[in-house]
Amino acid sequence: MGTLAVRFKKAASFISLAFILSGCFDEVVYLDQNWNEDNQLRTLSYTTSQGSQLIPYDWFINLKDAKTGLPLTSDIVVERLKYLPDYQADSNTNPDKLPIGFVKDTDPETGDWIGINCAACHTAQIVVGNTAIRIDGGPGMGDYIAMIQTVKNAIDNTLAKPRLFKKFANAIGADDSNSLASAMATQSEALASYIRNDSSIDHPGGFGRVDAANAIRNEIFVSDLGVDTNYLTPAAPVSYPALWGAPDFERVQYLGYARNPFGRNLGQVLGVLGRINLQNPENLFESTVRRDNLFYMEEWLRELGSPEWPTEYLGDIDNTAASRGAEIYQTPDVTGYACVNCHVLPDSQGNYPKTPAQDNLFGMQFTQTPLIPIEKLGTDTNALTTFYNPEPINMGMLGLLGLDGVSQEMSYPLALIKVVEFAVGKQYLSAPALNQTQQAVYSGLRVDSATAPEFDLYPGYLARPLAGVWATSPYLHNGSVPNLYELLLPPEQRSDEFYVGSFEFDPEKVGYVSTYSYNTFKFDTSVSGNSNSGHYFGTFLSDEERWDLIEYLKTL
Ligand code: HEC
Ligand code: HEC
């Protein structure tokens, strides 16, 4: 299997300021990850709606960035926010040249919206020399909150400037400027509420991070349910994880609380600009989630391979050193553990150690992704302390309806599981209703057998297989360690501060370049939620052993 799947030149017109300032690449390549021109999976993944609705579609196309006066969709604006222009956009699949993962959502009731999908957050880009390597399913670098703020600023700026407003109103063909102005003001407020729900100035995520779990909490239980006292400050921004392999994992999310892929993806949509009715008893749990698209997206994900280290761009791998590294990976250190005990490896046929067949109603087996108790890890705890925060959720109106398993006050994990369960049920039964078998398929056949042990949740983080880990810096759930070399150093020797946002890659230490450059985010590990402590495994090695292990990790 060759590593190079697609190579094309950026046309001269794509050259933009941000591009000149941040790494002058003039060709873009994709590695062979099984998403290609033949199966169209890349194109589909970049352009299919999941049911997120940011602002009306024609507004997005016609609004001008408040800082530069350029269209919001222009490369300069997109690159400033570290989303990825879709250089291959064609007039059929992406006529308005939206950035990767920015998609049109057509709502039968409310019309066309701009939304985002998986690819906006889960597509990486690595720049070496003249080349940008795009990694499907890799962690994105986009600043989600800054993106929403930029859209809000564009609306506010247009409202504040009569000439700009007039041009905008003409461009979208609005005939009543008063009602347009009031719709824009309402939308601006909705964006302010997203920003408040999903971020906090005391715990800025910066590029490539968002506090997903608390965003979902606040979107569902504050905005959708309408109970303000359920608000919790998003204090735990986390990195966008890589997606290859995930459909087969025993459990997912950093805290290991999800299994059913449909429920997981639906919960995500509700946290990412989707809407659900939790207040009107008539269409309770009805949502903007695009059921069938969401199912297909998970199916496409099943086809996605992990990226292989591209020697053509990143240099050869020293096989002798790598085989010494392979030994180290299998050898317990002073902690009593070997890497392989937690980050499982495939056998020579490519099969990972699996969960027992008898635990699943259909005999399905899943790749082991053990949940490691926090005491063994010592990494940052904010994601855990917010998720398992003892303050209960007030279920508002939902508590009054006598719904199965719902009481007036519930812990966040249980409340989330319940709402997702009802919302999934509503989706499955909406016309055309899915039969039992179809429902099981949409749920990834994740149905426990009668003898399966109970799915337990406890405070800890997931240990995933490390396939393609070379392409997923910065490391740990909170992105607090810039490269693999530093992860293998004792915590006190890791960088206290570094800069996130450069696409430039360091093939030696393996990670993005983390020194200061234009338009980067200063990652301060002394901020609550940003600790780079813990994960002592591998930190007792000699420097020579460390480099051998890194050489091996490049081969995974
Ligand atoms: C706004 C950005 C964003 C969008 C859009 C998004 N995700 Fe994610 N995704 C995240 C973040 C952040 C996490 C980590 C959340 C956590 O574990 O707390 C995550 C976690 C995941 C995981 C868990 C991976 C693992 O190994 O634990 C999967 C799988 C996943 N996303 C798939 C998807 C799919 C499929 C879609 C589209 C249907 C999607 N995501 C849309 C940001 C996003
Ligand atoms: C006892 C279980 C355990 C052992 C042993 C272990 N790890 Fe980990 N590892 C984890 C967990 C759990 C995480 C996630 C921690 C977090 O994000 O806070 C992790 C995270 C990582 C990451 C970052 C992954 C990412 O996407 O950010 C890398 C790389 C890694 N480990 C490599 C290793 C190597 C190499 C070894 C052996 C020297 C090793 N680990 C040993 C449990 C383990």
Gist?
With 556 residues, the chain is of the alpha+beta class. It contains 20 helices and 17 strands. The chain has helices at 17-21, 41-47, 57-62, 75-80, 118-121, 144-160, 162-171, 177-198, 212-224, 261-271, 291-303, 311-314, 319-330, 339-342, 374-377, 382-387, 412-429, 436-442, 484-487, 543-553; strands at 4-9, 27-31, 55-56, 102-107, 111-116, 123-128, 131-136, 209-210, 238-239, 371-373, 393-394, 409-410, 460-462, 497-500, 505-506, 511-512, 521-524.
Describe the structure.
- 33% of the residues lie in helices and 11% in strands.
- By secondary structure, it is α+β, with helices and mostly antiparallel strands.
- The strands form seven sheets. Strands 1-2-7-6 form a four-stranded mixed β-sheet.
- A hairpin with a 3-residue loop joins strand 4 and strand 5.
- Helix 6 packs across helix 7 and helix 9 packs across helix 10.
- The two termini are 15 Å apart.
- The structure holds heme C (2 copies).
- One heme C (HEC) binds next to helix 14, helix 15 and helix 19.
- The site of one heme C (HEC) has 23 residues, from helix 14, helix 15 and helix 19.
Order of strands across the main sheet: 1-2-7-6
Average pLDDT figure: 94
Amount of helix = 25-40%
Major sheet attributes: 4 strands, mixed
- The N- to C-terminal Cα distance equals 15 Å
What is the count of helical runs? 20
**Distinct ligands, ions and cofactors found in the model:** heme C
Radius of gyration: 23 Å
Q: What's the total number of strands?
A: 17
Q: Approximately what portion of the residues adopt beta-strand conformation?
A: 5-15%
**Dominant shape:** globular
User: What class, by secondary structure content?
Assistant: alpha+beta
Low-confidence stretches: 11-22
Q: Quaternary state, please?
A: single chain
